[in-house]
Design brief:
The protein has helices at 50-58, 95-105, 110-123, 139-151, 169-184, 196-202, 220-225, 230-236, and strands at residues 12-21, 24-34, 40-43, 65-70, 81-84, 157-161, 188-192, 205-210, 213-219. It is of the alpha/beta class and 242 residues long. The strands form two sheets. Strands 5-6-7-3-8-9 form a six-stranded mixed sheet, with helices on both faces. 43% of the residues are buried.
Amino acid sequence: MTMRNPALDLPLMLVDVRILARETAILDGVTLKLKAGPPTLLIGPNGAGKTTLLRAAMGLLPVSSGLITWGGREQSPPTHRALVFQRPTMLRRSAAGNVRYALAAAGMPRSKRAACAAELMVEVGLRGLEGRPARKLSGGEQQRLALARALARDPAILFLDEPTASLDPAATKAIEDIVRAVTARGVKVVMSTHDLGQAKRIGGDIVLLHRGRLIEAGSAADFFAAPRTEEARKFIAGELLV
C-alpha cells in the first residue's frame, strides 16, 4: 500500500461540539485538534463519549451545535477516513472476499483487487487464511480482517473503537503491532481503549473524556507522569469517576 498523504483530512478539528440524545449531552462542548503523527488514544469510563466522538469525527453523527472540520473543510466526504467497530460484522464470504468487497466499495479497479487484497491480508497477519469463511475466524482474526477492510479505503485517518476489548494478550499484541505499522506509513490512528497499559504502549497523545466532556488532553508521557487534573489522577489510579 502507498504512503497516505495525511493532509487530506488533517488536522481534524472539533470546536465546542455538543451532541444531544433526548436532551442529554453525549458530547458536551468538546474542543479538540487531532494532527498527523503518533496515535491519539481516547480513554475514560463507560459512557464518557468515546464512541460518540469517533462516530462524529468519522462523519456518521451530526452535531447538535459546534463545528467539525477535516483539513480545514466543514463538508468532507469520508473517503479518506475509516472506522473499525468493537464488534465488526463479517460478510458471508471468505476472508479475502471481505477485503475484495471493501476494495470494490473504495473504487479500486477489478483487475487490481486480488493482488491488493493479498497484500492487505499479509499486512494484518492473515496470510494463509484467505479462503477461510470470515465468520469462522477467531475473534482476534476477525478484528484483524476488519482492519484490512478499513485499510482498503487507504485512509488518512483510521478510527478504532476499542478494537482489543475482548481479545487475549496475543491477539491484542497483534492489533497493536498493526497500529504501529500503519502509523509508520503515515496513517493517523485515533483509538478508544479502556486499557491504560495499552494507552501507555502505543499512545502519542491521550484524550480523557468523562460524561461527554474533555477533561484533559496532552502527550502520553506528560499525561501519565504529571496529570494536570484531579479526574486524570483518579482515573490513572483506578478510582471511580463520578
